[in-house]
Amino acid sequence: MNKVIMYSTQVCPYCQMAERLLKSRGVAHVEKVLIDKDPSRRDEMMTRTGRRTVPQVFIGETHVGGYDDLSALDRAGGLMPLLEAA
């Protein structure tokens, strides 16, 4: 299964929903980058994604986007193939 990285904060409800969705699809571990604990990582997130909001989810090298993007990808049937790609 592809590695999942999520830029997040400690109190973000959308981040928690994104993590729940990923776990319900079989993701055992989501690597969280907490930008509220390490503000330098916020700049890294903005450079990589062009976005300022959390969550920002990466599956492998693919930037999926935020929770709404992740949820839409799942509804369209695209999440599992992306997770399972090697």
UniProtKB/TrEMBL annotation:
CDD domains: GRX_GRXb_1_3_like (cd03418)
Domain Glutaredoxin, first and last residues per copy: 4-64
Keywords: Cytoplasm, Disulfide bond, Electron transport, Redox-active center, Transport
Any one GO molecular function term: protein-disulfide reductase activity
Highest taxon above the source species: Bacteria
GO biological process terms on file: cell redox homeostasis
PANTHER family the record matches: GLUTAREDOXIN-2, MITOCHONDRIAL (PTHR46679:SF1), PTHR46679
Protein family according to the UniProt entry: Belongs to the glutaredoxin family.
NCBIfam families xref list: GRX_bact (TIGR02181)
Task of the protein: Has a glutathione-disulfide oxidoreductase activity in the presence of NADPH and glutathione reductase. Reduces low molecular weight disulfides and proteins.
Protein known as: Glutaredoxin
Gene (name only): grxC
